[in-house]
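Chapter review. Work through the record for Glutamate 5-kinase before attempting the end-of-chapter questions.
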Amino acid sequence: MNSSVPHAASAGASTSAGALSPARTAIAEARRVVVKVGSSSLTTAEGGLDASRLDALVDALAARCGAGSQVVLVSSGAIAAGLAPLGLAKRPRDLATQQAAASVGQLQLAHAYAASFARHSLTVGQVLLTADDVVRRAHYRNAQRTFSRLLALGVVPVVNENDTVATDEIRFGDNDRLAALVAHLVGADALVLLSDVDGLYDGDPRLPGSSLIPEVLGQSDVDGVDVAAVGSGLGTGGMASKLAAARLAAAAGIPVLLTAATAAAPALASAAVGTVFAATGPRMSARRFWLAHAADAVGRLHLDDGAVAAVVGRRRSLLAAGITAVDGDFEAGDVVELLNAAGAVVARGAVAFDAVELPALIGHSSHELPPEQRREVVHADDLVPFP
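Structure tokens for Glutamate 5-kinase:
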């Protein structure tokens, strides 16, 4: 969306929620907050950083830090910031030129943030991630330690996808999903998604008759909502990616606020703007979240109805007797998807056998197997069901 969206002008206005809901209160009082801002909220239409917009955002973030919260900023804008210096009229389509623009723009973006936060005597640290850093368990834990130490030192981490080296195979796809993953990785109490639209609408926000949805308590609140509106052209995300990211975080126990970047100050002060997504699931451990949402699944195990009932309904381990077929080339320790008879994914987990071992075991009860193979195929502690 561009700044001509009619509803964007009302971004600073309070929603009709009246007294703050529990989800808004949780966001307003969150001790650790992840804030994501998109390219179009930081740059001009021609490319290049908009200093006044960036400073306004930093002012709001610094105020939240001054109120006692720890803040992690997930910022798009590297590629967009590199367009003007390279004389590019629009975002390039080919990967090599995108990476070149990111190489130039990332320096400008980091310098701009460092200078702007310095006005508030705050130090920033740059953290560039690829999907590999979240997908690979060892990298995930290393990233956790890095963020933990930066925050303990009073640093504001500024996170972006490492567009300079990321390939199509290892990209997050958009920084909205990256922000949701980072929110859980750092143990955030809230996620704030700043866009160029002031919230989620029940229709195209550019058209008359569309209404802001102030609060999303579950899937039924967004059923039938059309989020296929186009973006600004400078970023990769749209409302669909923001909705997906909000669902991901909310399902992991993290409340989410979606609003316009121009409303960053009230969003980070009172959370009384935009659309709030209440947490819909329990807070997951880092390992279970990684299994469910971050790790790449490299194989599939097809289950019979009894195994599905045990895994999903009773949260039991998966045994060889309940497996009907195996797909993929994986090794013990890899993450696989578990499918029901209809082919729907009902769980994910870390498998205890290599793919080549399983065909001879499937359908057999434990007492029918050699002693060294009488173990769970996926242990309950390494398994995340999707009810």
